[in-house]
From TrEMBL:
This is DUF5999 family protein. The lineage of its organism: Bacteria, Bacillati, Actinomycetota, Actinomycetes, Kitasatosporales. It comes from the Bacteria. It comes from Streptomyces lichenis. Residues 1-32 are annotated as: Disordered. InterPro entries: DUF5999 (IPR046041). Pfam families: DUF5999. Residues 7-18 have a biased composition (Basic residues).
Length: 87
């Protein structure tokens, strides 16, 4: 057997990711400010994460992982002790 031919690598054309959002009206995209308003595709509270139809992974600590690999740090709302009310 020719060892050089057994080491060849075959490349395949890159596939484009189709949008997971197939319903109308379409959900906000992963790069929009309201991305968390997208529909749930998978919900795993025992593991602490949910997958939205725009490809965003939302974690129970309010952190997010976008489809392009960008990380959004947790952004919990302020507690009531830190909120000021108008007089």
């Amino acid at each position: 057997m020719d060892s050089a031919s057994s080491r060849r690598t075959h490349t395949t054309p890159q596939r484009k990711n189709r949008s997971m959002c197939q319903h109308q009206p379409a959900c906000p995209t992963a790069d929009s400010a309201d991305r968390e308003a997208a529909r749930l595709l998978a919900h795993h509270p025992e593991q602490g994460w949910s997958l939205l139809c725009n490809g965003v992974l939302v974690f129970e600590d309010t952190g997010e992982l976008l489809p392009d690999g960008q990380i959004i740090a947790p952004h919990r709302p302020l507690g009531t002790a830190q909120v000021m009310t108008a007089a």
